[in-house]
Write a structure and sequence with these properties.
Strand content: under 5%
Helix content: 55-70%
Largest sheet: 2 strands, antiparallel
Radius of gyration: 20 Å
Shape: elongated
Distance between the termini: 44 Å
Order of helices and strands: HHHEEHHHHHHHHH
Number of strands: 2
């Protein structure tokens, strides 16, 4: 059996930084210094530049000529638009999962709830956030619609940097567990309508849910400039980085 191809150093660095952004360890607006990253990963600046360019292409970072590289910020309307779409897609996925979930996925769904309850009892916000992500991933898989699941995953990855503080409040974690238990009951009993309704109520995409979600985030996480600015600077990224490389 052949082994999977080994990632290049730049791909490894890109994956690590992407994960840190998604977990909120690198917050929106955080600066990414090439020299510091090169020292951290014990590499030249070339694989760092390659990794940052790949992250910029995915809108994880912005490369601003003569200023630096920063974890991309969204505007409030952009975040709301993404959450509205996620709200609709996850409601559909819950309805399909109630119809199509197999026995293995039923067991895994219950495991994620048990994990969340244990994290709640231990006041472990990080573990709770992980169990929440796993719960939603089970539903993605159980809808048995790969295209729908990939759309949901892509949006959740893009907004994940805005989620870590959501689970810091114990009252919020308790509400999430209650929602998960109600949703699991509907999923496991095959009640499609209730599963869709509960998921829609659980999502922060609605008006009340979004206001509550927004209140957990600091104002400096947001940018008045539209996300299109990140795309507009894409053509300047390679030139800016290459020019810096020539200056070394």
């Amino acid at each position: 059996m052949s082994l999977p191809p080994k990632l290049s150093r730049s791909a490894e660095i890109k994956a690590l930084l992407e994960s840190e952004i998604e977990r909120g360890e690198l917050v929106p607006g955080a600066a990414l210094d090439e020299r510091a990253l090169a020292a951290r990963f014990n590499v030249s600046r070339t694989p760092i530049r390659e990794a940052l360019q790949q992250l910029a292409a995915q809108q994880y970072v912005q490369i601003v000529p003569r200023q630096g590289v920063f974890v991309t910020k969204m505007t409030v309307p952009q975040l709301r638009n993404m959450l509205e779409l996620l709200h609709e897609l996850e409601a559909v996925s819950a309805r399909l999962a109630a119809r199509r979930m197999n026995d293995e996925q039923r067991v895994e769904l219950q495991r994620t709830i048990d994990e969340g309850v244990e994290a709640l009892n231990q006041s472990d916000a990080r573990r709770f956030a992980r169990s929440n992500a796993e719960f939603h991933e089970v539903i993605c898989q159980a809808c048995h619609n790969d295209y729908l699941a990939e759309q949901i995953r892509a949006i959740r990855r893009l907004i994940s940097r805005y989620r870590p503080k959501l689970f810091l409040a114990p009252s919020r974690r308790e509400k999430v567990i209650a929602d998960h238990q109600r949703l699991a009951q509907a999923l496991l009993s095959g009640d499609e309508a209730t599963a869709e309704e509960v998921m829609a109520q659980h999502s922060p995409g609605g008006d009340a849910g979004f206001s509550e979600f927004l209140a957990t985030l600091p104002a400096e996480f947001f940018n008045d400039a539209p996300m299109s600015h990140a795309r507009e600077t894409a053509s300047a990224e390679a030139g800016s980085l290459d020019a810096e490389q020539d200056e070394e």
